[in-house]
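This part of the workshop introduces the protein records we will be handling. To make this concrete, we reproduce a full record directly below:
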Amino acid sequence: MKKLLLLTLSLLFTATIAAAQEYAMTDGSFVTCSGDFTDSGGLAGDYANGEDFTITFCSPFPTDDVQATFTLWNVGSGDILLAYDGDTATGSPIGVFNSAITPTVITASAANTSGCLTFRFISNTTSTGPRMASNYGLY
């Protein structure tokens, strides 16, 4: 009985660690190795009209940079995602994406001493899309 309980707890612990952390679009900054980055509706829902959020992902390791690979992109007309090479949403974005321009892989540059990527998502007040999602990790 003890072996069965220990095996069950071990499997549960392993499954918990293997599951990627989901980060829904919101204002905030996260130091993490990897995860799923989604719109504010998460993996199952839609984002709302009138959103304006900025989120930053940074590596816990000074020698690693963040890379985001977008796996799903379907935003409403007039909604935009701006990508910044650094830990703030200032200066010129390295990418501007909308319903006609799809992000693929966005990587922090070698010149970026923070190793972070920052995203700002702005939705208008008239239309939304089903969702956006990406996986991100370190390279």
Observations:
- The CA atoms of residues 81 and 121 lie 4 Å apart.
- The longest helix spans residues 2-18.
